[in-house]
Amino acid sequence: MTNNNSDIQSSRRHFLASSAMRGGPLALACLMAQKANAEPKKPNLGTEGFDLKPKQPPLKPRATAMISMFMQGGPSQMDLLDPKPILNELHMQKFPGKIKYDNAAQASSKVFGSPWKFKKYGEHGTDVSELLPEFSTIVDDALVIRSMHTGVNNHGQSIYAMNGGRPLAGRPALGSWLTYALGTKSESLPAYIAMTDPKGLPVAGVLNWSNGWLPSLFQGTVIRPVKPRILNLQPPPHLDGEIQSNYLDLLQSLNRRHAEQRTGEHELQARIANFELAERMQFAADEATDLSRESKATHAMYGLDQPETREFGERCLIARRLVERGVRFVQLFTKNQYWDHHGGIVKALPASCKKIDKPAAALVKDLKQRGLLDSTVVHWGGEMGRLPVIQNEANIGRDHNTYGFTMWVAGGGFRSGMHGATDEFGHHAVEDQVNHFDYHATLLHLFGLEAENLTYEQNGREQSLIDGQPAKVIEKLLA
């Protein structure tokens, strides 16, 4: 009996030992596989490089450049390009429906009719407010989109949506995506340029032209509204000429040697490329921004002879000169909250329109007469519109509205006329709604790009401008 027990114990030990030896490697393999699946995919650190050389898009492009005039704050659509007669009929009466307020503390239910008159212009009978007399002269070249929608009422989030694809900070701006995909024709100027207002940056500041997680080569370069237009571009007098040239040759040699030992370092590659571009820009940038080379007639067309329009007119004219020289994307910004008329709208809105109306119309006319409008998208608009009711009864204004607002585009394959509609009060887009991601997909299509295929791998995930949203190319917007 004792011997039998001993045999049983011995057999058990033998079985467990042998099983462990057989199952150990299998268990280890399973654990390693689970760990591998749990770990995020590492970013590509190989030899992939980036540059700004011009690239052929997969589809035939209709647009090759873009100028965006971003009216930060939210122009009031029912006072400019989307008239609503019922607001004047119900002026100062209680609004008969539901309103999505952003600032409930100052909210009012009283309807505010537009103080400004509208007329129809052009072959499409486009409605234009008396506040935009110059725009009325280019309506046959522009498409007024009355059904824009982001659905996020805060300025920052709606700016991110319109300019970066989603209402989230830190994503690449539209200009970064276009230059990442297409590069630039110019070897002596940046591919992507941001032009700021002398009275301050827009909401979100430099994030408006950020490259996000794209390589920094695709970040926007700022051209200032005053001279020097680009800071630190010109050397001090004692370093000018041969001294600087020798220094830059040595720096380039050291940088190249450093880069050869560190393949795949995208930030290093971008920095070297920017150093080399800065050297070429020392002449090209001054020439491109020198408005004395333009005729007096051109100056007058852009309003450079009038104090109200001079500053914005200069930026619009520089934008035309940049595109003419091969720059891919130029964006002009108005100052922080310039169109955010929560109060004092009766005086403030006319002043805002006076600043931009003549220069914006001149830009379209000038591009057209030079044969550039067909290939250049011109955009005008902000991140939101306004509500049909009063905010701040003591100093009448309008609150935010991102559920139905207006912008216009011209050239680059967009048709002219009007598109979409808001409800009878101008609150919600109810016909042919254009979400921000639909606008982006359509815009990329005009540049010969497929929105779902324009991607960049970041932290193991394929990222894109539309980012998985149900974006569609809106054929009704196209010529």
Automatic annotation (TrEMBL):
Q: Which Pfam families match?
A: DUF1501 (PF07394)
Q: Which InterPro entries match?
A: Alkaline_phosphatase_core_sf, DUF1501, TAT_signal
Q: What is this protein called?
A: Sulfatase
Q: Which organism is it from?
A: Rosistilla ulvae
Lineage, highest ranks first: Bacteria, Pseudomonadati, Planctomycetota, Planctomycetia, Pirellulales
